[in-house]
Structures are given as C-alpha cells and as structure tokens.
C-alpha cells in the first residue's frame, strides 16, 4: 500500500524564475507533489496587497521541462497567487504552502512588508499550514545549498505535527556556510523599524521624484528575538499570527469616554 | 498663553479626492493643524505594500483653496504616504495620524488587506499615535455625517490619553443614521475570511483573464467581535498590533525536532 504524497503549493515574491524559488522547489520535490503558482515579476515589498482594480492573468509555464512539478505564472501579487491556486488551479486543498526562499531577510518588522510572508499568511487564513523561508542574502547568486537540509527538517515537522489554526511560520536563515549554522531557534519578532532615507532626484523633464530607501534600526536587546538568533548563527523561526487584536489593551480602552 | 494645536497627518487609500478623506479633514480641522499626504489614485487592497522597484512622486496640491490644511498628492501606496510625510514633508513628528474615512469595511480579517489600516499601522511603527476609520458603505456618495461626532470623540481621547507603543486603533462605523448608532464598543477582530470567486473572462485577443471577487464568511459567533458590534448598531474599535508573534505557540514549537 502506498501512501499518497502530500500536495505542496510553492510561491514567492521574487518572481517565478528567481533562484530562491527554484531551490525551494528542489527540496519540496523530495517530499511531495509540487504545484507552483508564483508572480510573473518581482513583487518584493508588496505586503498583503491584492489586485482588485485590475485584471489578473495566470498561465501554465514550463521552466524546466524535465522537472515533475506543474507551474503557473500569475500577473498578480503573492497573495493573489495563493488565492488563484486554491480557487482556480488546485483540485484539492494543499497539505502545505511554502513561500520563498526569499532573497533577503524577513525578520523583525520586515514580516509586515514582505510579499513572501504575506503569501504564507494568506494560506494560513485559508486554513493551509504555511511557512515562509528567507535567506539573509539579497544577491541573485545567493547560495541556497546550506539551508536545504534545515528547510527539509522544518517542512517534515510541519507535515507531521500540523500547525494550530491562525499560526504560520516565519523562517529566516543566516548567510553562512553549512558548518557555521548552529541550528534552529524559536523566537519572537524583534521590535525594530526602518528609518527612511528618500533619495530625491530630478527627472529629465525637471520634475522631482524619489527612491525609497532606509536604514534598519533594531533597538530590541532581547536574546529571544529573531534578530539575535540570526546575528548569532542560528536559523530563526517566529510563529506568526494574523489576529492583530492587541488583547492586552482592551481592558484599558473600556475605561475611556468614547461615546461622544 | 495659547496652547499649540496638535499636528495631525491625514491619509487614506481611496485617493486624495475621495469624499471619505474630505469628511475626515473637516473633522480634523476642528481639532488641530492638518497636513494631508494621500495617494493620487485609489489604493484599496494594497495592504502594507511599499514602492521599492519604481519611483515616487509627491507634489503639493490645492483641492479646496479656502481650506486651512496643506495637502500633498503622492504616487505611491498609503504606507509610502506615511513614510514620505514623516521624512520629507513634516518638519516635526505629528501628534496623530488618521487614515480614512474608508469607503467600505475594514473589520475582521479585512484589516490585513486594507491600505487604510496599513497606513495607520505604519504610523504606529514610527511611534505616532494612529487611527484608521472606515464606514460600512462602499458608495462614493456615502453619508459620512453621522460618524463625525464619534470620530471627534475618539480622536480627542487618543490625543488626551495617548496609545501604548505598538498599538493603533481600527475603527469601523455602521451605515446608519445618527440616531440609530448605539455607541462605541471595544472589540476583538472577528475570526472571518473571504472565499474567492474568480470571474473568468476572455479578452479580445482570446486570452483568459480573471477578476478577483469573493464572499465574506464570518464563522465567529463571539459577541465581543467587531462583526457582532457592527451588526448590532455599534461603532467597533479594535486595538490593533504589529507584533505578529504567536507567543502562545512558542513553548510547543520548542518541543519539535527541528535541528535537521
């Protein structure tokens, strides 16, 4: 008697041809039946955006003709890809959704800007166990090899244990050789933020425009944060939720005089 | 001795000319010194997206030449507007950021897709007390009058009491006459989701495309949710946070065998 392979949906925000998603597909092909639905262009920083004021295209593509996975290229955001996959492409609910491997960190507050993590969160909202993977290396030729065995172990644990309703995993991997990675740490999201530095320029028509850039500031000294783990050679896993209610502040708010 | 008026940053996601932001500006002009930095086009459903792969324009505009506020129209997302305002436009940190009034609900899981609320969250990340306001009426000619006195009361409370670090307010207002609004309720985010219904069409060149639409499903029967409050004639306020850590799951995750 053969056991049915788990169905794994793979997506990302760097686009369907990015080396990071190719590495993730390789690992997932060792574990289950893989379907890829990913953006046709880079969608970094798209957060939880969805496409409601324009149309969406989603077409089957063959990127590696010897590979076993089915692939679809979608004109929308990472969150659109997950919605499209679960509603239009897959004929059953996937056992897992993995997003990434992102080229660059999604630790700390970056989780909120991240298309990679928003795709995982969207899968979580739909009741699909989901994990976002990111490597702390923005380069297109980043080395994803050292992370592969850790990704495999994390995915196998999630397939075996499941995840509680309302929780997805945010996994960040330091830019280190395999022998330098000290292991995996369960963390909380570091309390950090960006300080913007707009680069102001003038276009050939004389009109001013800006490029958004910034400096990442981590003022959180806690040794239980993702930032600490990553700086100390560990892979960080932050369990991440989408109930945004600040439950701790409800009682105090009830004392305010709000009925105008 | 005169007390300095509070500096209030106003933004939204429906665009700088939407009736909802005009109503919010009216109320804020009664309370403080108002600066508007808002998108030059509709940005609904943009979530926490930021513009990193293209350029941003941000120009002063005059929409009502007799009005006291300064206004700037920005080519980016609602989150870009807040970043642009705090870094390039305002010469001091605002005392408050208000976003909206959104044409349509941002209750329950809608908070995560909402450009309106993401602008408020971004202000919160930057340490600015922030509130998102939404009216449960998508119509362009929605009646914002009944909500004005409640918005004023909520804003005055926030200016007086402040908000704890890491918390912003998500305020939703039912589509009711002033006499029908029963008051304000502090709530938690209802556990609800969307079931997508893609509308598949064929373009004149014969290629299939989709429009994203869907049905909102609330399976949360709790009487402490925003959905319950809104359906029962109350304005809902959900204190909303951006530490997404699922703290309750950390202990169990530590028992997993994750070191592959």
UniProtKB/TrEMBL annotation, chains A, B:
- UniProt entry keywords in alphabetical sequence: Cytoplasm, Hydrolase, Metal-binding, Nucleotide-binding
Q: Which GO terms describe its cellular component?
A: cytoplasm
Q: Which residues form a coiled coil?
A: none
Where's it found, cell-wise? Answer: Cytoplasm
Q: Which Pfam families match?
A: SurE
* Top enzyme category: hydrolase
Identify the cofactor(s).
Mg(2+); a divalent metal cation
- Cofactor: binding details: Binds 1 divalent metal cation per subunit.
The reactions it catalyses are:
a ribonucleoside 5'-phosphate + H2O = a ribonucleoside + phosphate
Look up the EC number in the record and give it: 3.1.3.5
Q: Does the keyword Phosphoprotein feature in the UniProt annotation?
A: no
Per UniProt, a divalent metal cation binds at: 13-14, 44, 102
Domain Survival protein SurE-like phosphatase/nucleotidase, first and last residues per copy: 8-195
Principal localization?
Answer: cytoplasm
Read off the SUPFAM superfamilies from this record.
Answer: SurE-like
**Record GO terms (molecular function):** 5'-nucleotidase activity; metal ion binding; nucleotide binding
InterPro entries for this protein: SurE, SurE-like_Pase/nucleotidase, SurE-like_sf
What function does the entry list? Nucleotidase that shows phosphatase activity on nucleoside 5'-monophosphates.
Q: Which PANTHER family match?
A: 5'-NUCLEOTIDASE SURE, PHOSPHATASE, PUTATIVE (AFU_ORTHOLOGUE AFUA_4G01070)-RELATED
Give the family, as the similarity comment puts it. Belongs to the SurE nucleotidase family.
Q: What is this protein called?
A: 5'-nucleotidase SurE
Task: Give the source species.
Answer: Aquimarina muelleri
